[in-house]
Amino acid sequence: MSPEAVAALGAALAAAVPGDLRVGCRAIGPDDEAALLPAEAQALTTTVAAARRASGAARRLARDLLADLGAPAGAILRSPTGAPSWPRGFVGSLAHDEAVAVAVVARAASGAGLGIDVEPAESLPVDVAELVVTAADRLGDAGDGLGARLAFVAKEAVYKAVHPLCGEILDWPDIAVDLAAGRATVVTGHTAVLHVCRGPRLVVVARVGAGGIGAG
Prior knowledge:
Elements (H helix, E strand, L loop, with lengths): L2 H14 L5 E6 L10 H6 L5 H20 L21 E7 L3 E8 L5 E8 L5 H7 L14 H20 L8 E4 L4 E4 L4 E8 L2 E8 L8
């Protein structure tokens, strides 16, 4: 992504989420694998350079966002399920596509779980859309053809927010999204608030509040 596109996405993300969340983006660069702290680099199981660069970019970004909230400095390691492990008293989520990394963090008082996902602003292939979108989903104004892709991004973000809370493996039909209302419901009983960004990339932040309900 060009610097201008990254700046535009960053501005769109900041406008899309409330002030108690810290969210940002970073273009993935050739030096980002070197941004991994030693413990982070050791914890990564992949040897694929592109994946390690993306992980480094996302963790570099998340550490900066955490520092803005006053969190202690340190490595962002992986839980047994592969999700990031956050400092005590904080929650967050990481994501990336082939070009850009995104991250969102907050103090734990802001919500029990956070999830984020990013995808190119392109239509979803029909065969994939048929798997992702169910009759329970409400896509709102899908006249631009991005409704199914947004549902895909939203469900990925909701999964990341909910899975650490319940440990259950969720499939697409287990999550129902209402993009116009900015809400999602899960078969586990959790409800998430969705913050949708339709900038140079499609990004959704999902937040589950205390007790499993959404936090606006």
